[in-house]
Write a structure and sequence with these properties.
The protein has 294 residues and is mainly alpha-helical. It has a domain of 204 residues. It has a two-stranded antiparallel sheet. Strands 3-4 form a two-stranded antiparallel ribbon. Strand 3 and strand 4 form a beta hairpin. Helix 1 packs antiparallel against helix 8. The longest helix has 32 residues. The protein starts with a strand and ends in a 10-residue tail after the last helix. 44% of the residues are buried.
C-alpha cells in the first residue's frame, strides 16, 4: 500500500522517528522555556546538560553497575545538583543584566563542559544498551512499533504535560511566576524567592538530564551530542514563543513530525525545514506562535 507514492511502512516509520525526535525537542525546549520564562536566562549550556545526563547514566552503569531504571532518577538529580552549583556560583550575578550576558556565560560554560568530557572520554562515543524490559517491538498490524521508542514518547508526554500543569495550574506555579515579576512582594508573604529561583533552574537542567538518559540507548553517547541538537531546540523555542511552556511542547512535537515527513518527500531539506519555519514565523509573528506580544 502506498500513500502519495510512498510505501506506507516507510511513511509511518519516518513519522515515528519524527515523533521520537519531537519528544526530545519538546523536553529540551521545555527546560529552556522554564528557565527563560521564570528566570529570564537564555541557557546555552542546556545541550551540555543533556549530554551530562546521558554520560551520568553510562557512568552509573559502567562504574557502579546501576542500571537504566535507577538512572532515570539519579542522573537527572545529579545534573540538577550541578545546576544548583552553577546557579549559586555564576547565574545569580547576572539576573538583572541584559540577556546577552547570560547567553555568553552559558555558551562559555557549554564549551568548557564539552572540552572536559572530550578530554576524558574522547569523541568516538559510548554505547548504552536498551533495558531488557523494553527490548523488541509490538506488532500493530500496519507496522512494528519498537517498544523503547514508544516508551520515550510516553515519558516525554507525561513529563511535559505534568510540568505545564504544575506551572500553569497550581499554587506553586503561581508563586514561581509571581516571584519572577515582583520578588520583593512575594518574599513579603514568606516565600523564599532565592531558593525558589535556584530550584527552578535545577529543575530546568534536570529535564535536560532526563532527556539525556532517555536518549542514551538510542544514540551514541558523545561529548558533542548536545551541541548537535541545541540549535534546533533553540529554533523550537523561538517558534513556540520564548518562555511559553505550552508552545515548547506543541511546537517541539509538531516540528519533529514535520521533520520526519520532510525526510520522506524531500530528504535534502529535512535538516533546514525547522529553520525555514522559524524564519516564516518570525516574519509573521515575532513573539512566536504561543508567545505574548509586548
Amino acid at each position: 500500500m502506498e500513500i502519495f507514492g510512498v510505501p506506507h511502512q516507510a511513511l509511518l516509520g519516518q513519522l515515528l522517528l519524527g515523533l521520537v525526535n519531537g519528544s526530545f525537542y519538546a523536553m529540551l525546549s521545555l527546560g529552556l522555556a522554564v528557565i527563560f520564562g521564570l528566570l529570564n536566562i537564555i541557557n546555552f549550556a542546556h545541550g551540555a546538560m543533556y549530554m551530562m545526563g546521558a554520560y551520568a547514566a553510562w557512568m552509573l552503569l559502567e562504574y557502579f553497575q546501576i542500571g537504566y531504571w535507577w538512572s532515570l532518577l539519579l542522573a537527572p538529580l545529579s545534573v540538577g545538583a550541578f545546576g544548583i552549583l552553577i546557579e549559586r556560583v555564576l547565574m545569580k550575578w547576572i539576573y538583572r543584566l541584559d540577556h546577552l550576558y547570560g547567553l555568553l556565560l552559558t555558551f562559555g560554560l557549554s564549551l568548557i563542559l564539552e572540552g572536559i568530557y572530550r578530554d576524558q572520554f574522547g569523541v568516538s562515543g559510548q554505547p548504552y544498551q536498551v533495558p531488557e524490559l523494553l527490548r523488541g517491538a509490538t506488532d500493530l498490524g500496519f507496522m512494528r512499533l519498537p517498544n523503547y521508542r514508544a516508551w520515550v514518547v510516553l515519558v516525554s508526554l507525561i513529563v511535559c504535560l505534568g510540568t505545564w500543569y504544575v506551572i500553569e495550574r497550581t499554587r506553586l506555579g503561581a508563586n514561581l511566576r509571581a516571584g519572577t515579576e515582583n520578588p520583593q512582594l512575594v518574599q513579603a508573604f514568606g516565600v523564599n524567592v532565592p531558593l525558589m529561583v535556584t530550584l527552578t533552574f535545577a529543575f530546568g537542567v534536570g529535564l535536560a538530564g532526563l532527556a539525556g538518559v532517555l536518549a542514551a540507548p538510542l544514540y551514541q553517547i558523545n561529548p558533542l551530542m548536545g551541541s548537535n541538537l541545541i540549535i534546533t531546540v533553540f529554533a523550537v523555542v523561538v517558534i513556540g514563543g520564548m518562555g511559553s511552556i505550552l508552545g515548547s511542547i506543541v511546537t517541539g512535537i509538531g516540528l519533529g513530525l514535520i521533520e520526519g515527513l520532510t525526510k520522506v518527500f524531500w530528504s535534502e531539506a529535512s535538516s533546514t525545514v525547522v529553520f525555514v519555519i522559524m524564519a516564516i514565523v518570525l516574519l509573521v509573528r515575532p513573539a512566536g506562535l504561543f508567545g505574548r506580544e509586548k
